[in-house]
């Protein structure tokens, strides 16, 4: 049967591959082999966020919205290609502007990305009216608006326009809106949509779906508004609400897994590891906000952002993106993304325990860098952390390109020996 490769997923694979090269560059800098490269850290972060995960979200969000609704009309190809062109014209300009410090170039790229996002919002709102489960579709309707807020906060940083919280308030608002808002809401909706079908079990606590939605939504509003306004009490209240929403989500993830036959263990391990590093900064946040001189606030903030990018995002991508890449290339006649992902997951090998172990050990090493007693070992722990993450990242990129290149045959060739059902 003829298949179609999702162009957004191809670009996600490309940028994640370039991101792996940037990690190798980071290792070269940390080991002293080359001079420090300007803005390498932020370029690396955006290769994962906008370059990898946002491309993937653009590629699969309309399909997630309709989920198993076979009667829903697919978005027009012309509109989708326009989204792809806008996103992939704007993002390189944004990346170039960031790397060179050219504000006009970065703002131009960000504006074009904002236009692509507007087109995506139009597609989502046209589609969600036909979505079979409105409780889940509202995650997808709301999430892109937080990316709008995140881009506007980025414009503020580039143009020197800030709220009462100043530059660093705009920076935190930007990160929280993009990651804890945009991506986290879509991930939550996707997990609640896909896991029951993947695990062949009913969602364990369906009443918690609304708790998750409102906890995350109210929480991220506080996490965006608090730093921008310079009001720590708003940030802390938002953080508390976000913890409630995340706890409700994880209760459904763990409960649904426990009530299933407990297959796909390594995928679930990556999901739980991802949320460990998303939640890990929470106990530190009040100290950083209220007593910044009593703790290494700067080092903790760097470790927290690393956790969001390499601990949370990368693990979720490793768990599902190769399967989604293969599923998105299934023939158009297939019933929907849920059935396609379920079928592909049964054929394709799971991520290896090496990936699970190396990415989490790498994140542990990066989180050790703020510990004062290890101050003399900061360079070594940073180097070890990125080296371990690079191992997991490399295995992930190979698996992703295999899925993109051969979406229907890779699993069929290897499933007998490779599938883990323990």
From TrEMBL:
InterPro entries: Cyt_c_oxase-like_su1_sf. Keywords: Membrane, Transmembrane, Transmembrane helix. It comes from the Archaea. The chain crosses the membrane at residues 7-28, 40-61, 81-99, 105-127, 139-159, 179-199, 211-230, 236-257, 269-291, 303-325, 359-377, 383-405. The keyword Glycoprotein does not apply. The keyword Transmembrane applies. Gene3D superfamilies: Cytochrome c oxidase-like, subunit I domain. This is Uncharacterized protein.
């Amino acid at each position: 049967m003829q298949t179609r490769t999702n162009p957004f997923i191809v670009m996600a694979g490309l940028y994640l591959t370039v991101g792996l090269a940037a990690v190798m560059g980071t290792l070269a800098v940390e080991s002293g082999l080359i001079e420090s490269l300007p803005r390498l850290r932020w370029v690396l972060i955006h290769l994962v966020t906008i370059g990898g995960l946002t491309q993937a979200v653009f590629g699969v969000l309309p399909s997630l919205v309709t989920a198993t609704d076979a009667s829903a009309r697919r978005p027009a190809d012309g509109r989708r290609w326009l989204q792809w062109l806008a996103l992939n014209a704007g993002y390189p300009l944004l990346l170039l502007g960031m790397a060179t410090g050219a504000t006009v170039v970065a703002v131009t790229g960000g504006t074009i990305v904002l236009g692509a996002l507007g087109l995506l919002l139009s597609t989502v709102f046209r589609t969600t009216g036909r979505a079979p489960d409105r409780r889940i579709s509202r995650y997808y309707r709301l999430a892109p608006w937080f990316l709008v807020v995140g881009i506007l906060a980025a414009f503020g940083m580039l143009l020197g326009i800030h709220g009462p919280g100043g530059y660093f308030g705009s920076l935190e608002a930007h990160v929280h809106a993009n990651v804890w808002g945009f991506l986290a809401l879509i991930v939550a909706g996707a997990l609640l949509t896909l896991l029951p079908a993947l695990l062949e079990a009913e969602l364990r606590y369906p009443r918690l779906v609304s708790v998750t939605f409102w906890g995350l939504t109210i929480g991220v509003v506080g996490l965006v508004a608090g730093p921008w306004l310079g009001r720590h009490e708003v940030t802390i209240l938002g953080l508390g609400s976000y913890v409630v929403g995340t706890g409700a989500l994880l209760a459904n993830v763990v409960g649904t897994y426990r009530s299933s036959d407990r297959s796909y263990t390594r995928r679930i391990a990556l999901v739980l590891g991802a949320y460990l590093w998303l939640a890990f900064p929470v106990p530190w946040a009040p100290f950083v906000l209220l007593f910044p001189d009593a703790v290494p606030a700067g080092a903790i903030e760097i470790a927290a952002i690393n956790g969001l990018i390499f601990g949370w995002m990368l693990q979720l991508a490793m768990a599902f993106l190769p399967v989604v890449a293969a599923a998105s290339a299934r023939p158009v006649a297939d019933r929907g993304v849920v059935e396609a992902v379920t079928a592909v997951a049964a054929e394709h090998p799971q991520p290896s325990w090496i990936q699970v172990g190396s990415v989490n050990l790498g994140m542990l090493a990066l989180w050790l860098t703020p510990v004062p007693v290890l101050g003399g070992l900061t360079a070594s722990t940073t180097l070890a952390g990125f080296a371990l993450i690079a191992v997991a990242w490399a295995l992930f990129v190979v698996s992703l390109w295999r899925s993109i290149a051969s979406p229907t045959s890779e699993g069929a060739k290897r499933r007998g020996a490779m599938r883990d059902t323990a």
